[in-house]
Amino acid sequence: MKKCKDFCDKLSDYLDKELGENECVLIEEHLDSCAPCSLIFEGLKIAVLVCSEGISDEMPDEVSARLKEFLRNNCRAD
Amino acid sequence: MVFAMEEDLQYVRATLGGDFDAFERLVDKYQGKIFRHLRKMVSDSSLAEDLLQDTFLNAYRGLNGFSGASSFSTWLFRIATNVALMYLRRDRPETVEYDDKIMSELADVLTPSPEFVSTPLEVLLSQEGKVKIEQAIDKLPVLYRSVVILRDVEGFSLEEVANIVGASIPAVKSRLHRARHIVRETLTSYYIEKGSSRNL
User: Which residue ranges make up each domain of chain B?
Assistant: First the structure.
């Protein structure tokens, strides 16, 4: 009998579609019948989603300007 | 994706042919993503700027060695990761060292939280929510932080992440599993606390 932790240990691989069909079925059956694990899985999905959307790649214009100047001075000197 | 890779290759070839403007197109395209990656790795915007300059200078000087076996972005992120790790190992070795056992125990904490999963996405991604996401990632050791950024933020495949950080795919999966659970646990604790303070 697998414990909840055994299922939770595979949730990250499950999200990445790294598991075989049989393991996916076992996990889906468990999630359907176990409310705490289902909440943990939903939380994991949301955590991955907000990481993908919540970290800005905006960079200050002056950082970009200094980078360009640095590269013009150093690359062209090569 | 294929178009983007082909476009990058054209810029690389043009740069190697002496067209510096082509290299600036590559800089324009990737500077924001590389800066974000470095900023998260070293947790310091000013230092990330120095490492950003080193990364593109190293890329320019090493462009002859780009074989095209991987995408240009994978190759560039590998340079950025190595630049950051070299700095950290030299100047802040304690930040690179980590204890897998401690990480494993941290990742074993599993708190099911209706408060977190029922929080609307616009709240999670509000200005305050984004600060909490940044803080949750910053709590991770650098090697764990880098795989979360590369996989979940930049969207690289597991194989590409392994290539960039110079680790095996099982090692990347293991770090990712722990890191994601710790980020989830940190955000869960925050939204449980936030929910209970609202109910006071």
Answer: 2-94, 98-198
Q: If you measure CA to CA, which chain A residue comes closest to B20?
A: A76
Residue B68 per-residue DSSP state = S
| CB-count exposure of residue A2 (10 Å: 0-12, 13-18, 19+) | exposed
| B180–A58 CB contact, under 8 Å | no
Contact A75/B23, CB-based, under 8 Å? yes
Distance from the B36 Cα atom to the nearest Cα atom in chain A, whole angstroms:
5
Question: What is the token pair recorded at B166?
Answer: 């110079």
Taking only the tens place, the pLDDT of each residue in A8-43 is 889 999 999 999 999 999 999 999 999 999 999 999
Fold for the domain defined by B98-198: Arc Repressor Mutant, subunit A (1.10.10)
Which CATH number is correct for B2-94, 3.50.50.60, 1.20.1260.10, 1.10.1740.10, 3.40.50.2300? 1.10.1740.10
Both tokens of residue A20? 């075989």
Q: How many residues does this entry show for chain B?
A: 200
Q: Cβ neighbours of residue B85 under 8 Å, at least 6 residues apart?
A: B41, B96, B142
pLDDT in tens, B105-151: 666 667 787 888 889 999 999 999 999 999 999 888 888 999 999 99
Q: Which residue from B148, B161, B132 is spatially nearest to A52, judged by alpha carbons?
A: B148
Residue B49 has pLDDT above 70, yes or no: yes
